[in-house]
Amino acid sequence: MLLHAGVADLRMWDAQVVALVPGRTVVRCDLAGFGSTPVGPGAGCDAEDVLGLLDELGVERFALVGASYGGFVALQVASAAPDRLDRLVLLDGSGPWSSWATSTARPT
Fold first, then answer.
1. Distance between CA atoms of 57 and 73, rounded to whole angstroms?
2. Cα-Cα-Cα-Cα dihedral sign, residues 84, 53, 22, 75
3. CB within 10 Å: which end of the chain, N or C, has fewer?
4. What is this structure's pTM?
5. 99, β-bridge pairs
6. In degrees, to the nearest 5, what angle opens at C-alpha 84 toward C-alphas 55 and 4?
7. In angstroms, rounded to a whole number, what is the distance separating the alpha carbons of residues 93 and 8?
8. Please, what's the largest Cα pairwise distance for the chain?
9. Residue-wise pLDDT tens digits, 53-105
10. How many CB atoms lie within 10 A of CB 27?
11. All residues at 6 or more sequence positions from 86 whose CB lies less than 8 Å from its CB, including other chains
């Protein structure tokens, strides 16, 4: 499962899909409010949407890759369903831990 950055949509993964498809099933989606996916009524939860899509597709276990905001969503998915993940890859993930990392960094 490939989750796009907050400045992109599922097309950001086009080149990777070409490389990954031989021998693999690749799922990617537009998160709510991006690409062709509208924002629905109510607060919504991207992680719930991702898990719902995977359930609808019958995907039990999966590798999850998220870039930037997609990395933040990937962490939420991993927290909600850790037993379903084979691998988790975060690329320049965003989220509340960035201030923690800065505050705990040792001076060089």
1. 19
2. negative
3. C
4. 0.83
5. none
6. 70
7. 14
8. 49
9. 999 999 999 999 999 999 999 999 999 999 999 999 999 876 665 554 444 44
10. 16
11. 61, 62, 63
